[in-house]
Amino acid sequence: MSVFSNCLVSRREVLRAGTALAVTTLMLKPSPSFATPASEYRISPGRARAALKGENGPATGVWAYDGRIPGPELRLRQGVPARIVVENRLEEDTTVHWHGIRLPNAMDGVPGLTQPPIKPGESFVYEFTPPDAGTFWYHPHADSLQQLGRGLAGALIVEEADPVPVDRDLLWVLTDWRLDADAQIAPGFGNRMEAAMSGRVGNTVTLNGTVPGTQGVRAGERVRLRLVNTSLARIMALRFDGHRPVVVATDGQPCDPHEPDGGRLLLGPAMRIDLIIDMQGDPGSRHAVVDDFYDELAYELTTFAYADDAPLRKNPLDAPFRLPANPLPQPDLGDAERLDLALQGGMMSGMGGNMMGGGMMQGMGGMTHGRATWSINGTSMTGDGHAGMPPLMTLAQGRSQLVTMRNETAWWHPMHLHGFSFRVLKRNGAAVPHSLWADTVLLAPRDTVELAFVADNPGDWMLHCHITDHQTAGLMTVLRVGDAKDKT
Length: 488
Known about the structure:
The protein is mostly beta strands. Helices cover 5% and strands 39% of the residues. It has helices at residues 11-18, 144-149, 192-195, 468-472; strands spanning 40-43, 45-50, 60-65, 74-77, 82-87, 97-99, 123-128, 134-139, 154-159, 168-177, 204-207, 214-217, 222-229, 236-240, 246-250, 253-258, 264-267, 272-278, 286-291, 299-306, 337-345, 353-356, 359-364, 367-368, 374-376, 379-380, 393-395, 400-407, 413-417, 422-427, 430-431, 437-438, 440-443, 448-454, 459-465, 476-481. The radius of gyration is 21 Å and the shape is globular.
């Protein structure tokens, strides 16, 4: 098993070390099918031990919600008020961000910007009514590199009132870790060289908290598979050998059911994809699920292992794939305000001068003498959020917004907007099919995307890269919706 040093020399070495994966053969434990949703939960982040290398491997010291990796699967009801109490058992401040949920600004979980941080030994009550059904997740927005990188993440599922018929509803929480030779989390969070490149890519990938082996399935069954990438930096491109998965939702929002281009699913950090898969393999057969995002560094994530039993049914289930629509406001492109956002910085990009905290940061070779390495429209905000963060732009409440986002860097960026879902309209001038909505859009180097949403949710909202090193090193800003006096 390869482990990074704190000083990395090349992108190739970052990626090669990041995909030297240890693999064992373990039967995965799928999440419960159709678990009963609840309206109240209590979760506690704190220190714990986890079997990231499998039950027979050494235990790893982690930070976890309720001692579990990933954290408890929270299931809520669409349109029903939820109350979640977070009790901080860490030795430092924390918050919880409910990623992808369209909720009131005061419940968004950004320390200083939307709420006071939760001090050690204290609690905070999050109350919101989820308007959308779908697959979401939760994680800290304080000391994000360490807290997320040491394990604080969990899935949040909002159940449809009338779900599509499937035989099983499975959740795969995919997480990337950097472990040392003793299976402990390696130090070196916030490495400046990594921050200017691809971020802290790890050397071990877990599926639902353990190094994956086989996933037991039965011929003829129909499965809904919810994929959640909670990694700090690893981008994944998944291929399901011998199967034809159908994408039915992205980032929790239903789309036109479709097979992915070339059979390859791109899943950046923080992104989610819902699939429906008809298991049409032969009884007793095995089929690999492969991640081949990084050139020449593909690895087998897991394997579908078919039971020897006779098929559950001879032909695929005769039922629709399309999920019920969520109540998203439709943008009016003819009356939209226009926003232009340029992502800048990083190694091999050149920063020039960037503003951080009101002062000029002079870049040199893609790195700066301060903490900022990246910028949006020439302005850098570092860290996790704090009081007094000035908005980059103020958007008229209730107006449609047409956003052009240009990646002027040599690196990939999954860009996440808090508080909203947006329609992905175009990529590099070409229309994006399948009516895709998202809260996190993945931009390849030099990509340009066009997005649209209705700015109907007042407050100060974060926009940042979800490669967490990039966020904390400046690729973050605030968009204000409505006047400052109207903040909630």
